[in-house]
């Protein structure tokens, strides 16, 4: 990219100077540290992972010409952004023939990406943000469009792509107040970095306002919502009827506790008893422990409580022998939630970071969870404000809330409607973001 001033006055000049200093400093550091790379590889560890690819040295086999397919380069920071990329790629695959490249910044993100995509997508470590390495990566991938997932803003990469005339869009953009204050201190540099984006799709209106403050033209900004938690689902009624028929649930109220961790069942037992009393004993409790090796311990626990349990794999139709069911197989929980009335996500009453509450919301059902949701703060921040999810401080509060929703059908239905609306918003966000990509790809 040429060194022209992007904006009038001192702001643009400062941006140019900052950019030149950044790239000069980065190049010097790379040249100084590059001779140490054999030692880093020998020692191994996190810094050594994918080091050749970080230098822009990618396998020759992955970048061959693909006749008739346009090349889409998506860049994600780590695991969370890989989920966004997966949703976009899945949507795009149904709309045409494309060749996908996904770059990530972390070892965990790379391993997750490779597991998710297998041979569908070329998964690579992103180049270090040094101009010569960026050029090497761009020459290898030869993208028709670059898709920046969320707000992964690397100056040399973005300015390099813009200078080479590659179409660029930013999707699922977000700017926290803290990041915005930091970026505003170098507004001229940010103006230069963001100048190459033909479109900026943001999650919330305030994100759009902050990008506009950083000199992104308002006509390029579109509020599309969050595409991170969109899931392909079967028909909710079909899934619900299928599981309820298999488990012989008939008109029973169903309390599902998914991905529970050690110690949670003891906390949830009083919740079950309180809800069962309110239901008039028409309650079936389904428990899906996060780790199947805990099944024997759970059977022993319920035996000590003189409560009968049955295993999911032993249930077919009217053969369910008890009102407490333990899920003893993998791969059922995500769809099983459709059969529940009150769905609790585990790992949240004990300090385990929570689990994916959007697996419940996607069925148009409210989700309940405890205070420990460190691993899913984004999702919790989406469901609670709109009334599609409910965070409780402890098991006592959970029991009281479930009984209140059981007795107040109107309140419960409002929560279901909020969940359905939120799920639809996720699908719409993916569609809008893929439309933006296709538009600037020239499709």
Explain the overall architecture.
- With 443 residues, this protein is α/β, with parallel strands linked by helices.
- It has 2 domains: 10-228, Rossmann fold; 236-425, Rossmann fold.
- The chain is 47% helix and 15% strand.
- It has 18 helices and 14 strands.
- The chain has helices at 10-33, 37-43, 51-54, 79-93, 107-117, 131-141, 155-163, 177-184, 187-194, 205-213, 236-246, 264-279, 295-304, 333-336, 358-361, 377-386, 395-407, 409-441; strands spanning 70-75, 98-104, 122-125, 145-149, 167-173, 199-202, 221-223, 253-260, 283-289, 310-311, 324-326, 342-345, 367-369, 389-391.
- A 7-stranded parallel β-sheet has the order 3-2-1-4-5-6-7, with helices on both faces.
- Strand 4, helix 7 (155-163) and strand 5 (167-173) form a beta-alpha-beta unit.
- Helix 7 (155-163) packs across helix 9 (187-194).
- The longest helix has 33 residues, at 409-441.
- The chain is elongated and about 70 Å long.
- It starts with 9 loop residues before the first helix and ends with a helix.
- The model is unreliable at 1-12 (pLDDT under 50).
Features:
18 helices, disordered N terminus, 443 residues, 7-stranded parallel beta sheet, Rossmann fold, alpha/beta, 2 domains
